[in-house]
């Protein structure tokens, strides 16, 4: 239940909440009815159609998909050139494919021969976007609840500033909001995080995180945060003790078991083809919006040759350094995440120093210091994006709900929030706006197609600013957490640090 009194006095926050709700509705109604550029919903409609066809025939979806590849890669005009070889593996995990089929439930029934009509795609688009709008509203409501419960001492003005930044950031990405899968991934991660910080058993949070990992693999990087957050707040996290490692391993095993258990029915039904998405993403090149892409563009000005190719659903850059960067990317990402894990353990070790005292259990570390685990969740995802060879702008939707919950002091919070909003704005300026400068129409024998020229100087500069800004935000968050890990431990038991403090969960009913 939301505490509707601000922390500076006793004034009610109902009116600001109503105003922010109205603003949310107005913003979303400006987006929902209108088609967006570069939408992926037509791709989802094709996968939904193939799953429906497979179910009606009693066949495997992957067999139907393979048989449909020639037709799917051939369009009459205005098509992006892509090979059949790269499409033999399905880009999405099985759970994401199952989600794509859900809009069929609230669409009118059609004969099988109408699944290939433009009318079907348009009706699917409307149904899909409507479903995502419902998820969007639920996610925003969850962000509001967490903003009130994590920061009960903040004034209504400060909380509304957080929520306005969320609306500004997501509206800056309006063309991606309802036309990608990423909003649902953000909702799953936030729901799992809310459960992790609540009084419920951590297994519920692990189950939701397992769903998120099966929906899109990226949330797997959050596993260390969830495992450590589930540690009892009244027990010292002494890493020199084998018993501590055994207990952490047991929690990690539970999370792994839930993740594998969610995936297992799909694997038993279709075998190793359900793992094809791993091969698909492993084969992807250096996407032009990634930090590696900005590096290649900068080296181009020094004479390094650069080529542009559309493959694996993105615009990729090729040079003599591209294979090296693509090979280094996963190791660099792993190094970043390992460093963040060490920082997390150092923070929690300080948090539990002097524990192991007799007395009743006082919950988990996630419940005792929720602001730290919100911050570490954000840091792990940002480091994943920094080290990744792909930086699609929709990844920013993963971060938006977490960014507005950072526990920075007022000035630092404003810089961080609006720096993130600027990152979202620059991302939209780059794509889809400036990316059109790279588009070139060719006329091969089988019809017109779209290919891409080298990035313009204007695009490279704005993208470079975006990436430097994102890197700065990530570094700022890491420095903040490093300072917190080194700060002297406050008095009181670990389980008592939250309460109704600035960063603790409110325990009021």
In a few lines, what is going on in this structure?
The protein has 509 residues and is mainly alpha-helical. Helix content is 61%, strand content 4%. A hairpin with a 2-residue loop joins strand 3 (307-311) and strand 4.
Protein traits:
3-stranded mixed beta sheet; mainly alpha; disordered C terminus; 509 residues; 3-stranded antiparallel beta sheet; 6 strands
Can you give a write-up of this model?
The chain has 509 residues and is mainly alpha-helical. It has one domain (14-489). It contains 20 helices and six strands. It has helices at residues 14-29, 41-57, 61-72, 84-87, 94-101, 118-150, 156-172, 174-177, 182-197, 202-215, 223-229, 242-270, 276-282, 291-300, 322-351, 365-368, 370-387, 396-403, 410-433, 457-486, and strands at 79-80, 286-287, 307-311, 314-318, 439-442, 449-452. The strands form two sheets. The chain has a three-stranded mixed sheet, with no helix packed on it. The longest helix has 33 residues, at 118-150.
- Total strands: the figure is 6
Element pattern in H and E = HHHEHHHHHHHHHHEHEEHHHHHEEH
How confident is the prediction overall: mean pLDDT? 87
Structural domain tally: 1
Q: Spans with pLDDT under 50 lasting ≥5 residues? A: 74-78, 491-509
Query: How are the strands of the largest sheet arranged?
Result: 1-6-5
Give the N-terminus to C-terminus distance in angstroms.
6 Å
Provide the β-strand percentage band: under 5%
Overall, the morphology is globular
Gyration radius, in Å: 24 Å
Class inferred from helices and paired strands: mainly alpha
Largest sheet: 3 strands, mixed
Number of separate helices: 20
Name the helicity range: 55-70%
């Amino acid at each position: 239940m939301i505490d509707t009194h601000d922390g500076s006095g006793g004034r009610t926050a109902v009116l600001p909440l109503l105003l922010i709700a109205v603003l949310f509705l107005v913003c979303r109604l400006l987006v929902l009815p209108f088609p967006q550029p570069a939408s992926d919903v037509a791709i989802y409609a094709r996968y939904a159609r193939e799953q429906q066809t497979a179910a009606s025939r009693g066949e495997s979806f992957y067999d139907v998909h393979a048989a449909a590849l020639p037709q799917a890669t051939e369009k009459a005009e205005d098509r992006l050139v892509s090979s059949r070889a790269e499409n033999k593996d399905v880009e999405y995990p099985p759970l994401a494919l199952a989600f794509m089929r859900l809009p069929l439930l609230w669409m009118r029934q059609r004969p099988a021969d109408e699944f290939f009509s433009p009318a079907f795609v348009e009706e699917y688009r409307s149904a899909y976007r409507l479903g995502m709008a419902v998820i969007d509203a639920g996610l925003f409501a969850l962000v509001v609840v967490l903003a009130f419960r994590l920061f009960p001492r903040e004034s209504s003005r400060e909380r509304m500033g957080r929520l306005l930044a969320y609306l500004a950031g997501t509206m800056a990405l309006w063309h991606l909001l309802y036309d990608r899968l990423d909003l649902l991934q953000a909702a799953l991660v936030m729901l799992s995080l809310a459960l992790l910080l609540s009084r419920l058993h951590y297994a519920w949070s692990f189950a939701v995180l397992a769903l998120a990992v099966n929906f899109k693999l990226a949330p797997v990087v959050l596993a260390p945060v969830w495992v450590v957050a589930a540690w009892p707040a009244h027990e010292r996290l002494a890493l020199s003790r084998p018993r501590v490692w055994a207990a952490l391993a047991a929690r990690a095993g539970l999370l792994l078991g839930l993740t594998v258990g969610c995936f297992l029915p799909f694997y038993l039904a279709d075998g190793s083809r359900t793992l094809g998405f791993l091969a698909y993403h492993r084969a992807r090149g250096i996407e032009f919006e990634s930090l590696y892409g900005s590096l290649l563009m900068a080296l181009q000005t020094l004479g390094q040759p650069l080529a542009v190719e559309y493959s694996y659903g993105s615009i990729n850059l090729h040079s003599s350094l591209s294979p090296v960067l693509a090979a280094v990317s996963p190791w660099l990402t792993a190094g970043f995440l390992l460093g963040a894990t060490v920082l997390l353990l150092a923070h929690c070790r300080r948090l539990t120093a002097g524990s192991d005292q007799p007395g009743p259990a006082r919950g988990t570390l996630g419940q005792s210091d929720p602001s730290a685990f919100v911050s570490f969740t954000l840091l792990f995802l940002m480091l994943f994006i920094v080290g990744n060879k792909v930086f699609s702008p929709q990844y920013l939707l993963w971060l938006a709900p977490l960014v507005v919950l950072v526990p920075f002091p007022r000035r630092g919070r404003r810089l961080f929030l609006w720096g993130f909003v600027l990152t979202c704005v620059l991302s939209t300026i780059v794509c889809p706006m400036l990316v059109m400068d790279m588009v070139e129409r060719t006329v091969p024998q089988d019809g017109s197609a779209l290919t891409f020229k080298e990035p313009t100087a204007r695009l490279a500069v704005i993208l470079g600013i975006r990436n430097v800004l994102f890197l700065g935000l990530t570094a700022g968050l890491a420095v903040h957490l490093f300072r917190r890990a080194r700060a002297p431990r406050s008095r009181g038991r670990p389980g008592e640090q939250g309460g109704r403090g600035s960063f603790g969960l409110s325990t009021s009913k």
